[in-house]
């Protein structure tokens, strides 16, 4: 394999269907800024695969034999040195693993019937550190799973945030983009970006998907709220 430029997003595809792997690989490799560095048919030995291929983004099917996508995501997220971002693939609008995968470290979700343009866009968005939730994986669905009773709200998680940062965090958890948050809170978009960056730093979070998880787990946002 020829040397891949450092400004090209490296992608690993993990899916138990060979046609899916081949189709996604052909599509992504056709993009000048994306390169498929490997494929796998399930999550077995995923940490070794990631270390060998050094992807920036992993396209991860949820439902696979041997080691499923949820367990594989947990293993990758626990890697100590710069784990890749994970974009989960599912065939179900209401997949029961949605919130569990976000909690485990996934950066986004996309349905397998997404258009080629949506897939390419999703990889780029996740590579840049943004959260990506398919339009069909609705905000209501995320809220429903996020509200499952796992423990008492962990309000202490937000102790270091200012009131404005909590407001911004609330809007991020509701699925709004920076421009939308700016309009809602009457702020400049750059100011919103700064607040998001400070939230990530103060709470030790990796990306917007983890902001969503923390907002629900802390009780800042509730289902239907």
From TrEMBL:
It comes from the Bacteria. Residues 10-127 form the Response regulatory domain. This is Response regulator transcription factor. PROSITE patterns: HTH_LUXR_1 (PS00622), HTH_LUXR_2 (PS50043), RESPONSE_REGULATORY (PS50110). The keyword Transcription applies. Residues 154-219 form the HTH luxR-type domain. It comes from Nesterenkonia aethiopica. InterPro entries: CheY-like_superfamily, NreC/VraR/RcsB-like_REC, Sig_transdc_resp-reg_C-effctor, Sig_transdc_resp-reg_receiver, Tscrpt_reg_LuxR_C, WalR-like. Keywords: DNA-binding, Phosphoprotein, Transcription, Transcription regulation. The modification 4-aspartylphosphate is found at residue 61. It holds the Pfam family GerE. Gene3D superfamilies: 3.40.50.2300.
């Amino acid at each position: 394999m020829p040397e891949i430029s450092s400004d090209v997003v490296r992608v690993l595809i993990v899916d138990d269907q060979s046609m899916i792997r081949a189709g996604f690989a052909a599509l992504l490799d056709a993009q000048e800024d994306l390169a498929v560095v490997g494929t796998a048919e399930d999550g077995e030995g995923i940490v070794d695969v990631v270390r060998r291929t050094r992807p920036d983004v992993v396209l991860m099917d949820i439902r696979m034999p041997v080691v499923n996508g949820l367990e594989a995501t947990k293993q990758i997220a626990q890697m100590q040195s710069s784990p890749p971002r994970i974009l989960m693939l599912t065939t179900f609008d209401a997949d029961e693993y949605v919130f569990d995968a976000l909690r485990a470290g996934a950066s986004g979700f996309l349905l397998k019937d997404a258009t080629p343009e949506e897939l390419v866009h999703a990889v780029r968005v996740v590579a840049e550190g943004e959260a990506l939730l398919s339009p069909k994986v609705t905000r209501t669905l995320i809220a429903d799973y996020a509200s499952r009773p796992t423990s008492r709200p962990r309000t202490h998680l937000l102790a270091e945030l200012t009131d404005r940062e909590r407001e911004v965090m609330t809007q991020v958890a509701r699925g709004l983009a920076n421009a939308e948050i700016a309009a809602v809170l009457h702020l400049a978009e750059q100011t919103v970006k700064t607040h998001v960056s400070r939230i990530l730093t103060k709470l030790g979070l990796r990306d917007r998907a983890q902001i969503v998880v923390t907002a629900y787990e802390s009780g800042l946002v509730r289902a239907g709220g």
